[in-house]
Amino acid sequence: MSDVTEKIRITDSTLRDGSHAMAHRFTEEQVRGVVHALDAAGVEVIEVTHGDGLGGSSFNYGFSLEDDVKLVAAAVDEATRAKIAVLLLPGLGTVHDLKMAHDAGASVARVATHCTEADVSLQHFAAARDLGMETVGFLMLSHRVGPEELARQARIMVDGGAQCVYVVDSAGALVLGEAQERISALVKEIGHEAQVGFHGHQNLSLGVANSVLAQQNGARQIDGALCALGAGAGNSPTEVLVATFERLGVPTGVDVQGALAAADDVVKPFLHRLPFADRGAITQGYAGVYSSFLLHAERAAERYGVPAHEILQKVGEAGYVGGQEDMIIDVALQLAAERDRAS
Ligand SMILES: C[C@H](O)CC(=O)C(=O)O
Ligand SMILES: [Mn+2]
């Protein structure tokens, strides 16, 4: 166990991971309201981007209502203390996109790759460092590899310029000790040079518990989202993280009442659907499916008349990763064909 009283930093991803749950329909007014409330509560980093990061607005991933750079600029304008972060998936977002976000005032670059492909992030970390941005690496679908391999990937990111690397439980599939051992492996490999972070999803309702274990094993950056607004069953709720860490005596710098007010008074009123561990989302945690596939699977289910949870189960068995959203349609068509043959 590491020093349990050392301060941790909460990064709120309501306005980025929550974009998946909102089908990327955030308005500038909503962004301003959320940033204002989080900033007032003392949250140090607020992530604002399309759910799939800069450049994510597309036919494959879903079009944004508003341009990312415009929303980043609004967030920067609204924040008095908080830093504004952007997410970038190399290949989807480009160095040009990063420069535009930086020009709009974003100061933290979070570069995300599949957990075995850290090497594709190097150019983007170099560019972010040249721009003077803080750098964070995101190893997505971290349950797909063991702790040692994950630590090797984190090492690649740190050597490339990442100042923190996250274990990203994109599928909400890590069960307690599995999160703990991955955090410990990263802390051992990079802890003397960089921080380690944890990004949890609630598909098996373990986001907060895994975050506590992550902190107790040396993670110093933890992600959350107000009202859990995020892909799948949502993220670890920021307001619950803040209250839990305060009860544990771990400083976050965030005011509990401020976080509760931000969730209840600002986010809840504009939600059409609260993230929830329903059959589809639980299947994602159980079968290890990328959380942002949920709405894609629900749309395919409706279109082809097959259950979303069956699509997600097959997607998990096939091992598809972020970027393979089109395969969800393929799986739905196969299930529909099997159904037609059977009848
Ligand atoms: C692009 C993904 O939504 C990033 C993320 O939040 C995750 O993998 O989880
Ligand atoms: Mn996520």
Automatic annotation (TrEMBL):
A GO BP term, please?
L-leucine biosynthetic process
**Recorded catalytic activity of this chain's protein:** (S)-4-hydroxy-2-oxohexanoate = propanal + pyruvate; (S)-4-hydroxy-2-oxopentanoate = acetaldehyde + pyruvate
Does Manganese appear among the keywords? yes
Q: Which domain of life is it from?
A: Bacteria
* CDD domains per record: DRE_TIM_HOA
Chain residues that bind substrate:
R16, D17, S170, H199, Y290
Q: Name one Pfam family in it.
A: DmpG_comm
Please name the InterPro entries in this protein's record. Answer: 2-IPM_HCS-like, 4OH_2_O-val_aldolase, Aldolase_TIM, DmpG_comm, DRE_TIM_HOA, PYR_CT
Q: Among its keywords, does the record have Manganese? A: yes
* Entry keyword set: Aromatic hydrocarbons catabolism, Lyase, Manganese, Metal-binding
Q: Where do the Pyruvate carboxyltransferase domain residues begin and end?
A: 8-260
User: Which residues constitute the catalytic centre?
Assistant: H20
Q: Which family does it belong to?
A: Belongs to the 4-hydroxy-2-oxovalerate aldolase family.
Q: What is this protein called?
A: 4-hydroxy-2-oxovalerate aldolase
